[in-house]
Write a structure and sequence with these properties.
2 helices, about 30% helix, Macrophage Migration Inhibitory Factor, disordered C terminus, alpha/beta, four-stranded mixed beta sheet
Amino acid sequence: MPHLMIDYSANMEDRMDMAAFCDALRRAAIDTGVLPMAGVRVRAFRADHVSIADGAAHHGYIDISVRLRGGRDLETRKTASKLIFDAARSFLEPVLERYPVALSLEMREIDPALSPKCGTIRDHLPSTDPVQAIVPEQSR
């Protein structure tokens, strides 16, 4: 159940394709090999009112929050965080070169004992997710 939530300043919409960015992060999360494809969810939230650094209106930001069920060791999480961040940075390279933008990512674990889940997405996927065989049920 990895959730990727993108919080961004409204001025970023004029600089990039947010839907394509969401899809790039979805693919990057799956490509880590440790996050189950069926559970990956990416969504973006625009912040209409922000004040950044010296208050100049042209400053922008993208903050990516990754939440996933506990159970993966620190090295696995660090590697996954780096791969997702690198994908975001690569996608945004033309924007970062042209505009003042703060890009950040934070990965947090969710305690599986306090996070009940149910869903039928896996039942509707055309093929078996290879990560399901790697990640124990209680870690998804």
